[in-house]
Amino acid sequence: MIVSEPREDIAAWVGQKIGVSFHPPYTALAHVDRGRVIAGYVFNVWTEHDVEVSLAADRLSLTLMRAAFGYVVNQLGCRRATFRTRADNISAQRALDRLGARLEGRQTAYFGDCDALLYGIMKEDFPYGLYTQGA
Question: Is 95 a residue whose pLDDT tops 60?
């Protein structure tokens, strides 16, 4: 099941997984299976055309990927989403590749002990189609 509340719990779960903390304003989506979050997105730093997205997952479902990018495009009206991941997090980089994201740069010591890799995805490059309400 895809849920957006309680967003504080989702943000805390994602933050714990990736080693950051989130401060409002933000929104969140999660895939919950048997009462347990298995994947979550946090959306913050919205600039009208772009939103920063943080992702953590034990399992990443196509349903959640579509719902999350549908939210970025349909609800927030953004044309692109920006992701940062630790340079040493190969599984996150593979997940971003599956989402259709492209590596755009590197930020030295962004996580303190590790560089960040900056990825972006344009709505026209999202490979799985968009989730639309009622579809």
Answer: yes
Question: DSSP letters along 118-132, please?
Answer: EEEEEGGG-TT----
First and final C-alpha spacing in the chain: 15
Q: Is residue 51 a contact partner of residue 82, using CB atoms and an 8 Å limit?
A: yes
C-alpha to C-alpha distance for 31 and 57, rounded to whole angstroms: 9
Please report the domains of the chain, with CATH numbers, ordered by start residue: 2-125 (3.40.630.30)
Strand order in the sheet with 102-107: 2-3, 27-33, 36-44, 50-57, 80-86, 116-122, 102-107
At 108 the three-state DSSP class reads coil
Q: Which residues of 61-114 form beta strands (DSSP E)? A: 80-86, 102-107
- E strand segments, the chain: 2-3, 27-33, 36-44, 50-57, 80-86, 102-107, 116-122
In the chain, DSSP finds a helix count (H) and a strand count (E) of 3, 7
Q: What is the pTM of this model?
A: 0.85
pLDDT tens digits, 60-91: 887 888 888 889 998 999 999 999 888 998 98
